[in-house]
């Protein structure tokens, strides 16, 4: 009698999915449809989209794009260029050192979303599709065909596990939905960026200058959008467009160049920012610019505390208030209890010093705490400061801050005979009050950036990184954790106080209501922390970009009325869900959230 045995079957590793597109169109046809559609999208912007100029932007003119048509033209041109580059057209291959197909898809989505938003806005505002001219129908059909062609481009499909037949219907639905999302994300995955050939130093500097000029142009256009529909279209274009350029690998190429020329990049960035007031015909948008700089500077100071040292501070706006009240009290204001008028340099140093003292006094007894407990204590300090200055009105307490009335009638600065409250003519350009303060605040921001950069590269900066990553291990290696954290707290407070002295003169009045934990109008502690997390903790450019967005977007979403904060909060939730490391993260933090990403060969001290 023989016994037949069967060898146990070992599960074989499933092979990778066959490359195919999200839509069942042949690759050659889809690529041609996407590329040709991008070209036709550009052509369609030279047609009239509506018959009446009642819709803002005047989309009634043939041969001259206006308003939202310009944004559709830009996205159509991007789609066409990426499509031609994917064919290997000579002279365009440098546009896609990364994934050309993913860039085509995102650029096509940008054109589609902007164009269809415009068509819907015209129909809603003017009362129906009958208000569309043939050009409106053409752009709608062309952009739809373009995005269908782009989504048909093949990609490496990930292997997904089938649902367990024993699961309930709901569990199977959730499993299948996750599989579909995984496949959809893979359709937009980026590939490894090919190394760039070595360029001479002057060519790399020219690339940096071009990138900064483009950034200034985009910012100036966004801040100067004249009506609500244009701003929404601008945000759609910038969001999808930046994603497309990133997937194409251009952002990685430029980042590598700027990393080689850090000093040139920093100087160029501030020169570009200084040119902003000279691009404006009046002081309207310089007003927004100076408030963005105040917000961004304070956020950068908070980045030392939160991003570098890993200390969660929920009352940081109080240090801004300490600097503002200190500067107001020695400004010569008739509302000040002290009959003192110090020059600006003295009041700025005094504001920074007083804020630093408060930082030491608050940090010394509390920095032995960690995590949530430290956050609760700092939140309490912020509220104590606001209530204290509110009660120092001569009735509930000593007469120092005038209570809820605050310190008003703060005079404009006058530095070496330069009156910041008057218009001045520079090289044929006239700059007004807020433009003057914008340039002064830009200088303060430069000082804060230098302090942040030098601190991060120093021995104390490396100690902050060690404390942030693992405080117990840092203490075991001999780092004095309490001393290191106290220095971070004091330095962050001093930088916030320095910005506060300028804020007092910009706003004319300093009141307790300006320094709450959460408020509709920034800066406040909640918005400051959001700016650091949104932009990217531990970086220089991250909080600057985050602060600009957090200040600019709510100001432009006022047309939503009661739904303004809802839309703003929803956008933040989605961003933190899909990009938790921030808009401009350092490399170490990016790897923490995306473990499947390839680790870099070298990490700097800050992980950038």
Describe it for me?
It is a multi-pass membrane protein. It is found in: Cell membrane. Pfam families: BPD_transp_2 (PF02653). The protein has 21 helices and 4 strands. The protein has 608 residues and is mainly α. The strands form 2 sheets. The chain has a two-stranded antiparallel ribbon with strand order 1-2. The protein has a two-stranded antiparallel sheet with strand order 3-4. The longest helix has 27 residues. The N terminus and C terminus are likely disordered.
Summarize the structure.
It is a multi-pass membrane protein. Helices cover 60% and strands 2% of the residues.
Strand content: under 5%
Low-confidence stretches: 1-15, 598-608
Q: How many β-strands, per DSSP?
A: 4
Helical segment tally? 21
**If you compute it from the alpha carbons, what radius of gyration comes out, rounded to the nearest whole angstrom?**
28 Å
Structural class: mainly alpha
**Strand arrangement across the biggest beta sheet:** 1-2
- Helix percentage range: 55-70%
Largest sheet: 2 strands, antiparallel
Order of helices and strands: HHHHHHHHHHHHHEEEEHHHHHHHH
Task: Please tell me what the overall shape is.
Answer: globular
Compute the average pLDDT: 83
Straight-line N-to-C gap: 71 Å
Transmembrane segments: 32-52, 64-85, 106-130, 136-155, 205-224, 230-251, 263-279, 285-307, 314-332, 344-364, 371-389, 434-452, 486-506, 526-553, 560-578
Membrane topology: Multi-pass membrane protein
Organism: Streptomyces xiangluensis
Keywords: Cell membrane, Membrane, Transmembrane, Transmembrane helix
